[in-house]
Amino acid sequence: MHFKFITIIARQEWASIFRSKIPLALFSVLLVVSLLATFTGWQYVSKFNHQQKNAHQQVHDQWMSQPNRHPHRVAHYGYMVFREKSPLSFFDFGLDSYVGNSVFLEAHRQNTVNMSEAGFSNGMLRFGELSMAMVLQLLVPLFIIFIGFQTISGLKQNGVLKILLCQKASYLDILIGKTAGLTAVVWALFLPLLLVSLIAGNLLITGEIQGETLLRTLLLTFLYALYFLIITILVVAVSAMSKSSKNALMVLVLIWMLFFIVIPKSAQSLGGSLHEAPGKIAFEQAIEQDVSEQGDSHDPDDPHFASLKANTLKKYGVDSISHLPVNYGALVMQEGENISSNIFNEHFDRLISIYKSQNAVSSVLSFIDPYLAIRNISMNLSGTDFDSFTAFQKQTEKYRFEKTKKLNEIHLTQIKYQNDSKQKVSAKNWQEQPDFAFQPLTINQNLTAGGLSLTALLAWVLAGFGALTYVSSKRAYQL
Amino acid sequence: MLEAKNLTKRYGSHTALNKLNLSIQPGEIFALLGQNGAGKTTTINLFLGFIEPTEGSASINGISVAENPQEIKKYLAYIPETVMLYPNLTGLENLEYFSSLAGFDYSKKELGGLLTTAGLQAQAFDQRLAGYSKGMRQKVGIAIAVAKKAKVLLLDEPTSGLDPKASNEFSQIIQSLAANGTAILMATHDIFRAKEVASRIGIMKEGNLESVIDASMISANELESLYLKTV
């Protein structure tokens, strides 16, 4: 490899692309589309967050303005929690449109997250949303194909490659030089656009740039740079292996369809059939069944609650629940809460692990489809991935459990067992409870979740250069 | 300088080139005549190292082509039937690009000198190649070969499609290159041009080199009848 020759060839490739008008025309179309995608993404997210803020405020006000009440009525009054969209969600919608962002929290019940965009679909989703990430993942490869398919095959057809190969530069120098030139063009056109859109959109949505968001932005830019490099290597390799530009274009378009339609769709159904997940109804029924097997607090003869009663009486050294210094009703309710919450968490964890195994299928397939790799890691870093969603669901259940437990404690200590339902406690008791705030995953957690995809992306770069070396060593690909 | 020993290329059962034995000295121009498919281009591709011989060997300057495909590129230059190069670049830029890839760093003046040597008129230097005639492009191809200081020149039907004047100029240029010690192998259909320019002429048929004639010993008409008899 001669670095000097590679530079000369790369420079010539760069110059020849910019001399022709078609690449720039294509680029302007993509520029308009991605600006539009960024703009609509930003508008959607900021509108969404604004609405949610209002809804949250309303819920909170209602909660705070409850009169002095019986604590169990408060527990049933319920509370609604929301998840703000992540600052980078305008860039990559990820799963956000399909999973919910709010949960109604109440005593006894573990509600699952509701209100997804797909649930309220206004038709736009059915046509497929256009995010900037999608433009970069799907359309930029097409752009690379169109500017690069004839980069070597064209030279074969007009005989220039033979003359080039008769100079001192080796075929590998030529292939790497071409790759470098094309990649430089793609980077120069799209990376600044990506960086500026990410920073501008983030500034508009949050009004500031946090260190972590900046780090995510830089990582995303770097990973998309790798992705473009991989696609360019692929285009150059196919072009070098083709006898004519027509063949190269045909093969590349086929690969595009394979990578961007066939494999992702198959990954989905393969994951679904390998690891079958229960439906929502089956999931809830299974929980209900387990709960009723564990113990029914309303059944006086239920063995679990009978032993709870005996133990409590023994603990306080009294012979009847009416003589207990605490409210036995509240104790039973908390016990029921413990049981159902445990069971729910168990089932939920099992469900999550099924979904995770499904997602792992697509992570593994990243090794044969770089699009899956960038799609997964881009979602992770934008905070719109599956793990962000499950983190929300888990945090809400934890918050619900603690809120209810607190109310049961008030019930336990401040409400007498006799004449239970006629008593009230001060509203201060629940007004002092902390509000829910979603803790997004840290960048480390996101990167760990995307580890396999990240490895796949790096493996693709290495494999790409390996492929170029292989192609350059074959005489058959020189003619 | 150029040597083929029992050089054979087979594609399956088809023999494209059969036991070619040929040696071309510095300063010699060897013209290969023959119909399409006679094995002329196969011979040139074997010398260029783009295909591997089935049997025998091709060597340049005593170095085996098959074993050192990169090494022998130092010595040779190649001009195809149609020199396309980069239509978006000017003649001078094309020459600059290709000679820099051969490891030479010429000044603009030197590049201009090379184009003049190749017979290109000065006012065309800074015009884009897209506007060049075939003959003008061929001259840029020659300039690229000269710029490389190649000791061996391989030409694949270089004069086909050239008008008689351009063709004649071309002949003069390659003769002056040979006079400076370049060994030249030229595949052609042009019997008259072969007789004019070559020192020796070989006639090929179905992969075999049927006869080799000293160009000074034969007239164009005799050559033509020999050619027709052979093929």
Automatic annotation (TrEMBL), chain A:
The chain crosses the membrane at residues 24-45, 130-152, 184-205, 217-241, 247-263, 447-471. Signal peptide: none annotated. The keyword Transmembrane applies. It comes from the Bacteria. Keywords: Membrane, Transmembrane, Transmembrane helix. PANTHER family: ABC TRANSPORTER PERMEASE, ABC TRANSPORTER PERMEASE PROTEIN NOSY-RELATED. This is ABC-2 type transport system permease protein. It comes from Dyadobacter linearis.
TrEMBL record, chain B:
CDD domains: ABC_DR_subfamily_A. Keywords: ATP-binding, Nucleotide-binding, Transport. PANTHER family: ABC TRANSPORTER ATP-BINDING PROTEIN ALBC-RELATED (PTHR42939). It holds the Pfam family ABC_tran. Residues 2-231 form the ABC transporter domain. InterPro entries: AAA+_ATPase, ABC_transporter-like_ATP-bd, ABC_transporter-like_CS, ABC_Transporter_VariousFunc, P-loop_NTPase. It comes from Dyadobacter linearis. The keyword Transmembrane helix does not apply. The lineage of its organism: Bacteria, Pseudomonadati, Bacteroidota, Cytophagia, Cytophagales. One of its GO terms (molecular function) is ATP binding. This is ABC transporter ATP-binding protein NosF.
